[in-house]
Amino acid sequence: MTRSSIFLDAQQQIHQVTFGQTRLRIEDITAIAQHGLPVKLTDSADFWHRIDAGVAFLDQLLDEDGVIYGVTTGYGDSVTVRVPLHQVYELPVHLTRFHGCGLGQEFSYQQSRAILATRLCSLSQGYSGVSRDLLARLVDFLNHDITPCIPQEGSVGASGDLTPLSYVAGAMIGERDVMYRQVRRPAVEVMQELGWQPLTLRPKEGLAVMNGTAVMTGLACLAYERADYLTKLSSRVTAMMSLALKGNSHHFDDILFSVKPHPGQNEVAGWIRHDLNHHEHPRNADRLQDRYSIRCAPHIIGVLRDSLPWFRQMIENELNSANDNPIVDGIGEHVLHGGHFYGGHIAMVMDSMKTAVANLADLHDRQMALLMDTRYNNGLPANLSAAAPERRFINHGFKAVQIGCSAWTAEALKLTMPASVFSRSTECHNQDKVSMGTIAARDCLRVLELTEQVLAASLLAVQQAMRLRVLRKELALDSLMPELQAMLQRLGEQHALVDEDRQLEAELRQLIGAIQQQQFALYQE
């Protein structure tokens, strides 16, 4: 794996990301999107020679009246329409305009930054025939915190993310809205305020910005980090569930897992084993084996953990690709017409990831059901209510939270239907086989959100269960691993014991935010 272009200073604080120099990693994109990292273009002479050669070669072909798709022809099925040379500079503007039909909710601030950075990475490969001015404008948008307002719906994921990316191209020419300093404004007004001129798109530049996989790939980068974190949080919650249910820590024995050598699964088992440290409860003699949602948790979480390396490989290969059409090799003087805009690899990753993540929601929904039910929770009160005996008749503890978990899990499982198999023939059957990668990515983000909700509820419930064990002197707090003690202390400070029924929405939302911001320190890899 290549070294990240992100570098650290003496205080280990990330400074910036350089484009056009080395392969970027998922972490580069997420750092730009989530932490506002500034970006720059490399000063490599070879890089700028490749950029300038592409522009010069296209100009040469225009002078020679060459036929270039999307430059001297119409788009898609209109490839047979020859565009007069005096109109080739108008053509990219029309491309941005007629694709301005996106609908649905708009991508978030962080998602829009990920999209901008991903498109910049592709164009910085130097095979798209774009100018220095266009690259510089993308850099300026990121460094001045300008994000185009991009509707989420309208891409079929082949011919690229045309409609959503038209909002990037349109913003650069001053014809769409942007978010600037947290205020929605017309792009042209923001440019005037900053002393900029709207960009004039050269021939091929509208197509270069729009005809690629930047939306689905940017979303995939954000999804990857969330999925990675959830494998760790799921492992921690499972360990806590085992303790709360008086589980059998030997289910995670290292010898046991040595005979089924999936590395991610074994890593998960090792994390749980570390948290439990073979902590033993007095056990009922008739229950040798815990139920599957505890005993098989490493096997369930491990599927996602073992899939992460190939998810990363496919996402980062797409991220570091020139994925528009045509490809312009200015140095070798070739214009190559192909289908690199096709988002099949990202579609497969997102469809696979959302299935593996939804299984985590299902796992923790089952664990929650065990905690609530006095038939299975080894002596805990019904629904984990900590009500005093005389108040138990009217208090219901986590009953509705468990119902919520079931609802969120059902929705997550419903969304695992693969989007990539629902190809539609569009655009006069020119785009007759498409990837649906952007829909898969949006589905995956929703599944991640629902699973984070299930995990927040599980964490709130299991910490109550463990505290009840401590109060009953069935579990000694100082017998736990330091990491678990610290986590219980933090949760206890923020969430009072549910002894009398109260509204838990605000506490759940707080925990969801902490999970999404990855505030809980978990395992070191």
Protein architecture, described:
With 525 residues, the protein is mostly helical. The chain contains 18 helices and nine strands. The chain has two domains: 169 residues, Fumarase C, Chain B, domain 1 (Orthogonal Bundle); 279 residues, Fumarase C, Chain A, domain 2 (Up-down Bundle), CATH 1.20.200.10. The radius of gyration is 27 Å and the shape is elongated. The two termini are 16 Å apart.
Q: What's the structural blueprint in terms of helices and strands?
A:
Elements (H helix, E strand, L loop, with lengths): L16 E3 L6 H10 L3 E3 L3 H19 L27 H8 L4 E4 L2 H15 L8 H12 L2 E3 L2 E3 L8 H11 L4 E4 L2 E4 H8 L10 H6 L3 H31 L9 H5 L4 H14 L15 H4 L1 H23 L7 E3 L4 E3 L7 H29 L26 H16 L22 H35 L10 H13 L10 H12 L9
Parallel strand pairs: 1-2
Antiparallel strand pairs: 3-5, 4-6, 6-7, 8-9
Strand line-up across the major sheet:
4-6-7
**Per DSSP, what share of the residues sits in E-state strands of 2 or more residues?**
5-15%
Total domains: 2
The CATH topology of the largest domain turns out to be Fumarase C, Chain A, domain 2
Q: Structural class, from secondary structure content?
A: mainly alpha
Question: Tags for this entry?
Answer:
9 strands; 52% helix; two-stranded parallel sheet; 3-stranded antiparallel β-sheet; 2 domains; 18 helices; disordered N terminus; Fumarase C, Chain A, domain 2; 6% strand; Fumarase C, Chain B, domain 1; 525 residues; mainly alpha
